[in-house]
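Why should sequence recovery work at all? Because a backbone constrains its sequence more than one might expect. Tight turns favour small or flexible residues, buried strands favour hydrophobic ones, and helices have their own preferences. The token representation captures these environments compactly. In the example below, the structure is given first.
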């Protein structure tokens, strides 16, 4: 179990009621299960009320039960397999509650991302992109979707944007052989962290490139090699990594860079709109019949 959590429990153990001692014992023995239990389910499991569980969380120094639960989730996140994640959700969330649970969790992730992102680092990262000759974007695993989205919009802003194919270290380095000090790279990775993303960012840093990491913690292995670290929350939703936090940061980064290069971007967009109209790329919608 998380050493900090264990220490909090140890320091307060002498003040615990009988019910709180039962909660503490269950957490220490089954932290992987508690990480995905609601306060009411934990209470029912150990034979205490939901309010007793909430008071226990505040008693050991957390703002409430959700904060305690987040601490446990972050602790076990990088250790659990996909099968274990799926089983945990199946055991702890009724099927008729899945939609509400996932939406509520994503809303909470966005709130915590807004609280944790470093504004100064964000705008410095945007400045580094504005001044870059070429931009490289890398995301492995589920982060590939984020990297693809980011590269798509950056191509409307910059002349040269490379979406790095992370199939192997060889192909990554081959694609970046011409990268240099005038270029920038954005690497995206969340637990379980991609070794390829970490090695690529180190390679880029060694070549003097502007290195931007979009990740979840300053303890992330990406942060060690990044000149700009943009933190975004990314928690588990069963075996799926929720990416609403980093996606929102990416949206803000695209908009900020586009506004900084407004004149160039406006010309590019106007040309693209003309091409789209000329070649009938999009279906026109008759508003009268909509």
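From this structural description, the recovered sequence reads:
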């Amino acid at each position: 179990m998380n050493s900090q959590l264990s220490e909090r429990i140890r320091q307060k153990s002498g003040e615990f009621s009988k019910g709180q001692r039962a909660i503490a014992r269950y957490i220490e023995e089954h932290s992987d299960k508690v990480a995905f239990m609601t306060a009411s389910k934990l209470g029912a499991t150990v034979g205490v009320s939901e309010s007793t569980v909430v008071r226990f969380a505040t008693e050991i120094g957390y703002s409430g039960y959700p904060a305690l639960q987040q601490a446990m989730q972050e602790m076990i996140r990088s250790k659990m397999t996909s099968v274990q994640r799926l089983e945990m959700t199946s055991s702890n969330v009724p099927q008729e509650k899945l939609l509400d649970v996932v939406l509520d969790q994503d809303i909470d992730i966005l709130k915590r991302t807004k609280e944790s992102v470093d504004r100064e680092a964000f705008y410095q990262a945007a400045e580094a992109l504005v001044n870059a000759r070429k931009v490289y974007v890398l995301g492995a695993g589920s982060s590939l979707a984020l990297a693809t989205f980011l590269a798509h919009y950056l191509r409307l802003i910059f002349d040269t944007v490379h979406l790095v194919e992370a199939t192997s270290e060889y192909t990554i380095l081959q694609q970046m052989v011409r990268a240099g000090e005038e270029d920038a790279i954005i690497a995206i990775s969340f637990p379980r962290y991609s070794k390829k993303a970490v090695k690529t960012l180190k390679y880029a840093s060694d070549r003097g490139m502007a290195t931007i990491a979009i990740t979840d913690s300053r303890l992330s292995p990406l942060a060690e090699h990044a000149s700009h670290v943009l933190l975004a929350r990314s928690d588990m939703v069963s075996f799926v990594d929720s990416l609403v936090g980093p996606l929102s940061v990416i949206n803000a980064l695209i908009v900020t860079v586009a506004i900084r290069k407004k004149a160039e971007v406006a010309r590019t967009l106007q040309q693209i709109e003309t091409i789209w109209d000329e070649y009938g790329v999009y279906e026109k919608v008759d508003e009268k019949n909509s």
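A few observations help interpret the result. The mean pLDDT is 88.
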